[in-house]
Amino acid sequence: MQLVQSYLDKIETHIELNAFLEVWKDEALEKASELDQKITNGESLGKLFGVVVAIKDNLAYEGHKVSNSSKILEGFESLYTATAVQRLLDQDAIIIGRTNCDEFAMGASNENSAFGSVKNAVNPDLVPGGSSGGSAVAVAANMCHVALGSDTGGSIRQPAAFNGIVGLKPTYGRISRWGLLAYASSFDQIGPMTHSVEDAALLTQIMSGADGQDASMNQIGPLEIEKSSIKEKLTFSVMREAIDNPSLDPEVVSNFKALLSKLESQGHTIRYFDFPLLDSMVPTYYVLTTAEASSNLSRYSGMMYGYRSENATDLESTYTLSRTEGFGTEVKRRIMLGTFVLSSDQYDAYYEKAQKVRRVIQNETRKILENSDAILIPTTSTAAFKLGEKSKDPIAMYLADLFTVQANLAGNPAISLPLYKNLEGLPLGVQLLTKENTENDLFSISQKLMDFYV
Ligand code: GLN
Fold first, then answer.
1. Whose Cα sits closest to atom 5 in ligand 1?
2. What is the DSSP annotation of 8-36?
3. CATH for 1-274+375-454, among 3.30.499.10, 3.40.190.10, 3.90.1300.10, 3.40.50.11310?
4. pTM for this one?
5. Chain-wide mean pLDDT for the chain?
């Protein structure tokens, strides 16, 4: 009870960071007192007993509002609870509120929210990253223990890097997407945002495992974190283009190189590889995700959910006006782009081509991981940038995803670790990717790296 109150106080203190869209204060306090009662009664306690969790505003929680930070879902309440959220509740977690994000999870700076930008937890003049910026800031500024985000092309890892916390995108199909409002279904994954690798592992373990509601899941059962088997001396694959790239900030490069030397001095092997496909990754990602988004978002028509324009006079104008007034600029841009790449005369040139490139990226990623334990790469090419700096330039914003989209295109698990800071004191993230369904190893290797820097 006291713990929940202390988080509520922190949320109040940091209200200007705009991390939460809604705080379920009374409910959280009530749940806390129920849990206190469980102790008094000597009942058995869940693995997340009393852990205070914030959830991104694209996760369904029965009887609670969910808006995906969009006006088009104004007033909409979830009719059921996302499997991932339910599994946390079943272990006695307390859900404290829903966090701000980019509208429909489309963005890398959280400036696309219909409810105003979130501000970085380390420096409020900077972006928190996106799209799960509210969740990242909520954790980094201690407004909750842990948070859930979703990651389609980096939306957990990039804000985690910008705020100095741990963020995991699990293997595609590891955690049920039931109850996650879809952006690009063959990319989307729910994942944890935490202070420590241990917490990320525990949450992943609890949320993972087959669910009859999501047919795209792998059927391998929940993650068993105890079963890691990593070698003493590891081999890391490093993409040459990720060190030589002109878009990289020099401090990102120097810190990353220092990490590589440190690993080598401890007897680990660094294996460099060329990845000419790097430049194709962002375009491939945007062709495929906008195509999927244009289909997924067609359900928001003013008829079934949320917002309906008051100026509509017939069916056609209900669709047109509700969407025109309800969606923000970036969402509209992506729906149009997606509709374009799927149109019959463009399909072969864009959508089909991008599918083929995705397959090549998947195969190449697998090949690299056959000969090494993990791919190591900076999470982002710069530290958090200024609010407003890239918001007028969508291409510059899309390039912020340069190093994160590979894991979603290929399906591999990837984690961002807050290993060091630049000279200004801003956190820089390092990303690790491992083979599909090897989160166990990913967590063990991550812990090794984190131990270097304590
Ligand atoms: N920045 C990427 C995009 O705008 C990633 C978003 C995400 O992972 N949800 O699509």
1. 153
2. HHHHHHTGGG--EEEE-HHHHHHHHHHHH
3. 3.90.1300.10
4. 0.97
5. 96
